[in-house]
Design goal:
The protein is an alpha/beta fold. It has helices spanning 2-16, 44-58, 83-102, 113-118, 121-125, 141-149, 197-201, 209-221, 248-256, 269-277, 297-305, 322-327, 334-348, 367-380, 397-401, 408-431, and strands spanning 22-24, 34-41, 62-64, 73-78, 107-112, 131-133, 154-156, 179-183, 185-186, 205-206, 226-230, 238-240, 266-268, 284-288, 312-314, 353-360, 384-389, 437-445, 452-456, 462-466, 475-483, 487-496. Strands 1, 2, 3, 4, 5, 6 and 7 form a seven-stranded mixed sheet that branches. Strands 18-19-20-22-21 form a five-stranded mixed barrel. It has a three-stranded parallel sheet with strand order 8-11-14. A hairpin with a 6-residue loop joins strand 18 and strand 19 (452-456). Bound molecules: S-adenosylmethionine and iron/sulfur cluster.
């Protein structure tokens, strides 16, 4: 059992620490003349974007490949959220240099947040880069590739107020055939002072809900059993049939101007969740990320009404101290956050999975303020968290106006304390699941043993059990018998069919 547990912990970290994960394209042979290889770094949104990019280039003569050596075009879909994410890309470009020297016609493009942040500077500093495209410029990629093939450097970092790629049917990459991501909105209007996202992904805009439902329905018809609705702040999802309004902020401004909007269709996040949940009872619905300032009881009650909306919420708190939260411009307080957690527990019960993001050592954070983060963690007991130390990002309000004055070794020590406490809480929370039966959607085989399957329960916890006659894509009721801080381990008691 020890070996399996180790293996399973690996699965958890590969999936869980999304920010450290790299995903690459798989081999696809539909007879197209050229090969595209994409490496995607960073968040789920980037992985979802790479599927849009693959779909756009498929229409223009490209199949994907899993080997950079075979590619005619290599894209790195980049992340800029912390400095180490960018350092990884610089290192990867050095490695690709030798490949390019061997294959002179090979084109290398940088996509995503780092491309948007550094723009033409990338072309100046990196001779091997031929194409730079920001997150709103992917429709232009066929043209940018053609331009680069003509020997020119090609750049498009235009940020749009409308682009949602609603009409693009993504090519599913790295697919297990069971779970898929659907982007429901793009950009962010929140302006947290530490964060580069509003500058690299532009203004918030919500995608047409009917195209989202259609995408989810098509996935279901192709055998998928779970969709995750993605946005930087899904709770501010808001769509109206008014042709000029693409976000909640614009809608509020129009109301203030006294415009009559009653004749337009309006869909908020709770409505959207319901629309997707109604597709089929055996299509699970997840979503990420929720924002503490915006998550409503209406969303929580919608989750309560539908068994197929998973009882799991990623609700990043960042800090447990009010002065730091204000400096971060998160626009909620510790008390507000704890009240939202109380509402989750009241409406969805103690079993609802809850996770967070935490930043250690933000500008001017004192030891006492750091301890407020630890005490908030004690009060909530998150199932797991993504934990970081603060990394100053050029151009953000914090970089312009605040001093990054907590020494690196202090940041690292505080982060370590946060990680240790989280591990303790994860184990405590998992121990509560032992002895109970959990419904698991099977996603794949355990990496080292084809004799074991793994999947997730509704609270997003990884569950591993002996395969017997069960298959990937089955819903299996599993009696959990033991656990680690990352994994529940048990045995199947039966298959569930709706
Ligand atoms: N939209 C989500 C929210 O508001 O919670 C988060 C999106 S961001 C891509 C993911 C996480 O990265 C953040 O929640 C934050 O914890 C972390 N992060 C963002 N900027 C950071 C920075 N400059 N230094 C360290 N961590 C950072
Ligand atoms: Fe960044 Fe804040 Fe927007 Fe999240 S809500 S993407 S942390 S600005």
């Amino acid at each position: 059992m020890k070996q399996i547990v180790k293996d399973i912990d690996l699965i958890q970290s590969a999936e869980g620490e999304a920010c450290e994960t790299v995903k690459t394209t798989q081999e696809q042979n539909t007879g197209k003349s050229r090969k595209l290889y994409i490496e995607s770094y960073g968040c789920q949104m980037n992985f979802s974007d790479s599927e849009i990019v693959a779909a756009i280039l498929q229409e223009h003569g490209f199949d994907t490949t899993s080997e950079a050596q075979k590619a005619d075009v290599i894209f790195l879909n980049t992340c800029a959220i912390r400095d180490n994410a960018e350092q990884r890309i610089w290192k990867r470009l050095r490695e690709l240099e030798s490949l390019k020297n061997k294959k002179p016609g090979l084109l290398v493009g940088l996509l995503g947040c780092m491309a948007e942040r550094l723009k033409t500077k990338l072309l100046e500093e990196e001779k091997i880069v031929d194409i730079v495209a920001g997150p709103d410029a992917y429709r232009d990629l066929p043209h940018l590739v053609a331009e680069a093939e003509d020997g020119n450097k090609a750049v498009n970092v235009f940020l749009s107020r409308e682009e949602t790629y609603a009409d693009i049917n993504p090519v599913r990459l790295n697919s297990n055939g069971v779970t898929a991501f659907i982007s429901i909105m793009r950009g962010c209007d929140n302006m947290c002072t530490f964060c580069v996202v509003p500058y690299t992904r532009g203004r918030e805009r919500s995608r047409n809900p009917h195209s989202i439902v259609q995408e989810a329905r098509t996935l279901y018809e192709r055998g998928y059993k779970e969709v995750t609705l993605l946005g930087q702040n899904v709770d501010s999802y808001f769509w109206t049939s008014h042709p000029q309004i693409t976000s909640l902020n614009e809608y509020r401004k129009a109301l203030k101007r006294g415009e009559d909007l009653s004749k337009y269709e309006q869909v908020n996040f709770a409505h959207l969740l319901e629309m997707v949940a109604q597709i089929a009872p055996d299509l699970r619905v997840r979503f990420s990320t929720s924002h503490p300032k915006d998550i409503t009881d209406e969303v929580l009650y919608t989750m309560q009404r539908y068994d197929n909306i998973c009882k799991y919420i990623h609700l990043p708190v960042q800090s447990g101290n009010n002065r730091i939260l204000e400096l971060m411009r998160r626009t909620y307080t510790r008390e507000w956050y704890l009240e939202r957690v109380a509402a989750i527990r009241r409406i969805l019960g103690n079993e609802c999975g809850l996770s967070s993001d935490m930043i250690a050592g933000f500008c001017s954070e004192t030891e006492e303020e750091h301890r407020d983060t630890l005490s908030l963690m004690e009060a909530v007991k998150f199932d797991f968290s993504y934990m970081f130390y603060y990394s100053e990002r050029p151009g953000t309000p914090a970089a312009k106006r605040l001093q990054d004055d907590v020494p690196l070794e202090v940041k690292k020590r505080r982060l370590q304390e946060i990680i240790e406490l989280q591990n303790k809480h994860s184990l405590e929370r998992n121990l509560m699941d032992v002895g109970k039966v959990h419904r698991v959607l099977v996603e794949g085989y355990s990496k080292r043993s084809k004799e074991h399957l793994f999947g997730r329960n509704t609270a997003n916890k990884v569950v591993v059990f002996p395969k017997e006659n069960y298959e990937i894509g089955d819903y299996v009721d599993v009696l959990v018998e033991e656990c680690t801080s990352a994994t529940l381990i048990g045995k199947a008691v039966g298959k569930w069919t709706p």
